[in-house]
Design goal:
Elements (H helix, E strand, L loop, with lengths): L32 H17 L14 H24 L4 E2 L4 H7 L7 H19 L10 E4 L4 E3 H25 L13
Parallel strand pairs: 1-2
Antiparallel strand pairs: 2-3
Helix pairs in contact: 1-4, 1-5, 2-4, 2-5
Length: 189
């Protein structure tokens, strides 16, 4: 069975805690985005080191590798969108079909170690760009093609939920595969 496309409007995470991963955007201080993004990338390094990273827990759930590819691409996309919000007045973002991207980029065939490195690099670039956001720049706006309006503040809260949620997804997948792998003592993950 193929993956069912995700067509939900996830902007509700700005109004209440996510019942699955527990992330509460209302309680998240967006000035902590750099720490959050870099810590998330470090967690993906461990998740993608598992020898089962490419194994799906079932036919309709992404593997940790596929989730990792998605998070890498989210960081890349959000860097572009953040740049536009900082340099343009009220930009509108084209729709991003994450499921079409997964198929086109063949997420399931990518190398987990490469993805971990690319994810970390993308997180680093996004973090560096966030270092330039302060003061009233947090209130600059941008719009999704479906009309959803964001300030950099709300955009950041929305962004941080996605990779946190997908760490939860990957960990749940590993639980269904028998538990999260741990490297032998003395070896880095």
């Amino acid at each position: 069975m193929p993956i069912v496309p995700d067509d939900k409007n996830w902007t509700w995470v700005l109004e209440r805690a996510c019942p699955d991963c527990g992330f509460d955007a209302r309680a998240f201080d967006p000035t902590g985005v750099r720490v959050a993004v870099e810590a998330n990338a470090a967690r993906w390094r461990v998740l993608l080191a598992d020898p089962r990273a490419a194994q799906r827990p079932d036919d309709h759930t992404w593997s940790a590798l596929e989730y990792g590819c998605h998070v890498r691409d989210v960081y890349r996309l959000y860097l572009t969108r953040l740049e536009r919000m900082l340099t343009e007045v009220g930009p509108t973002f084209a729709n991003w079909d994450q499921d079409a991207t997964a198929v086109k980029e063949r997420y399931e065939r990518q190398n987990p170690a490469d993805v971990a490195g690319e994810l970390r690099a993308a997180a680093g670039m996004l973090s560096a760009r966030y270092a330039t956001v302060s003061g009233d720049r947090w209130q600059r706006t941008g719009f999704r093609s479906d009309g959803a309006a964001f300030t950099i503040d709300s955009f950041t809260r929305y962004l941080v939920h996605d990779p946190v949620h997908h760490v939860h997804d990957a960990e749940q997948g590993y639980a269904r595969l028998g538990g999260l792998w741990a490297p032998p003592a003395g070896e880095p993950a």
